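=== RUN LOG ===
request id: a7f3
mode: sequence -> structure
chains: 1
length: 89
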Amino acid sequence: MSRQVYCVRLKKEAEGLAFQPYPGELGVRIMNEISAEAWKQWLAQQTILINEYRLSSMDPKAKLFLREQMEEFLFGDANVAMPDAYKPT
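=== RESULT ===
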């Protein structure tokens, strides 16, 4: 049986993550408060941000930016703004 959590992003009970996807206290919070579905949504959003802003995973500023965006996406405003140049396919 899958683990259920109350997802603060989706505002409902949903299937939880199978593993902690991020290190440290934030990772524990994600594991306990974010569903697998919401995490999948974040991964899609992260891909858009990386591509549109041409971020490098080696750049500490890019890592900090993505962490801030992740926290806002998962725990903050559900209507996160898309990059100006983003055109959905």
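=== NOTES ===
The first helix runs from residue 24 to 33.
The chain has one domain: 4-75.
=== END ===
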